[in-house]
Write a structure and sequence with these properties.
heterodimer; A: 322 residues; mainly alpha; 9 helices; 74% helix; globular; B: 196 residues; alpha+beta; 6-stranded mixed β-sheet
Chain lengths: 322, 196
Amino acid sequence: MSTPSSFSLCYCRNVLYFREGWNYLLELYFWILIGALLLVSLTIYFARPPPSNTNKYNYDTLEGQMRNSLGYESPHIVDKEKNQNEVKNKEPEEKITKDEIIKIQKRRWALGFVILGSSFTMFGAFLLFVSIYDFTNFLGSCMMYVGIISLFKGVNIELQKDGNLNSFFSSVFFILIFFINFLLLTDLLNVIGNSPWSVRSSVGKLGDLTLVYLLPYVIWKLVPTFDNVEKSYEDRFFYLKIRNAILFSIFNYTLLILTSLEFMLMPILNQYLSSGFQISLYLVMYSITINLFGYRNEVNSVNDFLDLFESSSDKNSEEVEK
Amino acid sequence: MKALANISLFILILLILPEDGFLGNHRYETCKDDDKEQWNEILWVAHKDHYYVCKIGYVNGNVNLGWTLDLHYDSHTKIADVESSILSVTILNTANVNAFIKGESYGVSNARLASEVFTFSDPGSSLNAYSVQDVDLAGDNYYLVINFGHRNTFEREDVDAKPAYYDIFKGWRGDDTYISSTVDIDYYNSNLQATS
């Protein structure tokens, strides 16, 4: 048996260093893609028009205003009954028009996501099929991941377009996204579950939990809305309903028991569920605290603090209009 | 009334929160990593006659695996009592941990682990530390299990269930004797990269 030469050992060492660096590069690329996806979601969320500008952009009322200034009839001779009849006739028309506009805008977003998702999935699959290099394989997998997730987001927007998706089906849809996301992360991308939980660094644990829990939540929750309705306290981003937090805890605990007793053979998922359940219990405590101390307006300092930002942004938009 | 309900729920969650409290089944502490120089502290009084389980996590492939135990005892407790109370230290997969706790017949899923780790007061073995090189583990969650008398055999036997809240009362009896444990696990390939 021949001993390896110094050249071959040196070459092996270089190759191993290269492979190690290559893995980091792939992981970095993956995080860039996740960041891009998050950026798109946040852009959609913040692209909504501010609630206070409702009347100024409501073109349905402009017709009435112009008629008053250019009309042939003087205001004092307008019959009251006639006016009331006009208002009654106009109201449903305005409502329908507004709803239709919102539906069209939502459909555009849904269509955009579906087209983007389909093209990414197709191109990613093509890359996976024809390529022989690690990088292109990973690129193809990432593209398929982003594509499939975009498809689901598009479907989510389409389903919520008419407001017919009740809370039960919405929860079912979240569970579906959760499992699809998890399977893609483990089986397609292989970016989680590569090292035991006990040896994972704190940052690594946080990253894994973000991918497993926060990412499907963002995909499920952040859909574009164009209602122009003034945001209530319960719509604020920091607000969490106790019911939702409890349901999330039950969801985690049920999965933990099912995977621990091996009714569901998903050992990688089981690794994350203990921490997930622990976090969901903290969320229940948080939601209780928010409901106990944050809901009343007189003690709602956080609410007032956020209002400061919103009023300043509204002022800016008003200035721009002028 | 709503506030009262919320406060009651808050107290309930506080009771559920610890891993050994209500809903403690299948919720184990995470084993601390030797590479980070961290240790789990196991209070002897709280686990005497029962068991201690910590979760290593999902492992799939060739690994170098090891654990270390250190005894810390006060003047009231004889060290021999503590040492003799530890009947076995094993690394088990999910199915075997469940069988171990329920009192069903169980075993170590890997032949090398079974032959080389400390089990049932083997006179030729030392309690302090073990490490096994290049063990091929099937993809599953693995746990470090310290048997303080919960099981006396690998066969089926009647066992006393570990009471809920067992861990909450730790330290009340004024016995500060504890065992610190840590595990070391490295994938064989990553180790090769590091040493080449």
